[in-house]
Amino acid sequence: MTAPEKTGGLDRRLVRRLSKAVGGSLSAALEERICYSFDATDLRGLPDVVVWARSTDDVVGVVRIAHEAGVPVVPRGAGTGYTGGSVPVAGGIALSVEKMNRILSVDVRRRIAVVEPGVVNNDLRKEVETVGLFYPPDPASLLVSSIGGNVAEGAGGPRTVLYGTTRDYVAGLELVLDDGSVVRTGVLEGPSVGGWDPGPLLVGSEGTLAVMTAVALRLSDLPEITATYWAEFATLEDAARAVASITASGIPVSVLEILDRETLACAVEYVTGTRPDAAPEGALLIETEGAREAVEASAGRIQELVRSNGASTFREATDEKEREEIWETRRSISPSLARLAGGKINEDIAVPRSAIPSFVKAMYEIGGALELPIHAFGHAGDGNLHVNVMVDRGDPSQMMRAREAVARLFAAALSRGGTLSGEHGIGITKAEHLSLEFDERAMAATAQVKRAFDPTGFMNPEKILTERPNPWWEGLPDAGGVPDGGRDAVPDGGRNGGPDAGADSPREPTTC
Fold this sequence. Notes:
Layout: E1 6-7, E2 10-11, H1 12-21, E3 26-27, H2 30-35, E4 49-52, H3 56-69, E5 73-76, E6 93-96, E7 103-107, E8 112-115, H4 121-129, E9 133-134, H5 147-153, H6 160-163, E10 170-176, E11 182-184, H7 199-202, E12 211-218, E13 220-221, E14 225-233, H8 236-249, E15 255-260, H9 261-272, E16 282-290, H10 292-308, E17 311-316, H11 320-331, H12 333-337, E18 343-347, H13 356-370, E19 374-379, E20 384-391, H14 396-415, H15 434-437, H16 440-453
Helix pairs in contact: 1-3, 8-10, 8-13, 9-11, 13-14
């Protein structure tokens, strides 16, 4: 009997069915599949086919066909994630929702916006500001990242310290379940919602439970004014102590970002084309916003606190142009660091704010012991630090030490009451460490939720709960001190590429 012809790795008859389900908005061309094989990491997983959904009906059709055939479905937004959550490591269908990009409604009275998952974060922000409202979650990738991806990863951003994360703004979801049935939760279900709401389980689930096709989001009032401050310190530890002092004071800051010397110097060079002659060892970006009287009243107290912790420079942005220049530097950090070495591994640990000085000290000790530069920046106001291990991916010795550095950084965060991920999710890169944070009962409960939503395991497989080895370390020998997790096996089919896969990709990592 002749084997059926295949397109990518799929039977051509199945591909034709998928194409019909989405009106031909599908491609099995290798160049398209490569474009959807990676996120903002250098990890690779080649899908067998790319499908662009334009409506809930499209998603329903794709999911039903995939469920029947047992083919993996990997939902994808803008592809700016940092843990491989949208990388099709098991092949299958890359289901892009980027064309589902309509703002469906903005209810000013109820302060609720309903959007499709492909709406770009900043587009929503600009739209609701025209009616005096405000959508606070603002990941640094807000100019490109989509709402669906923000919800799937539980994204935060600089304003998390005052406003909370994306999770706090999800008021309802429209979901396509594993069998293609459509469920609406929260405010989208109707006015008489009662009983258990499954919607919150989907926030941060990384597409492993269902596909989101609409999101209802809570909105806030647009702040009356915003004040932006910049402070520089002789050491990063001084800057970290200033963070602890400001948060302990109770001043309602909306942004409290920390940067180390090399991070700042790289970002300035990236923006201006010139590396600064001297950069401070530590810096803080601080903002307050709200009613004019309250914002103005807090300015003196903020200056007093940063000066008492050793700030050598403190200034306030005098106009919107100066404020935007400061923010352009902050948003350029991740792509600027990407050019510093042959590669970087960006981890987004979070610790209690009072533990930031202690963690920063431990971070430097880990980098020194393993002879690897580690740079830090992030949302210090809520304890969320992005620690970047700079490494030459072509050097096996450096990669082994980087592996050990990541394990030690996670241990340092957890021992201080922290967490493995503040906003980037777990995906595949952190899955082997998840059991360090959650005990057996919590892991078993998570697995039960996965089975309840997706009993056949075809929804974004090999993410969060997986035995697949972390592709960062593929091919490396065992490293002492790193928790077991099937590290030394090679992923099936060679779908992931080596450590340098994607290094010359045209897309720069932007989520931080």
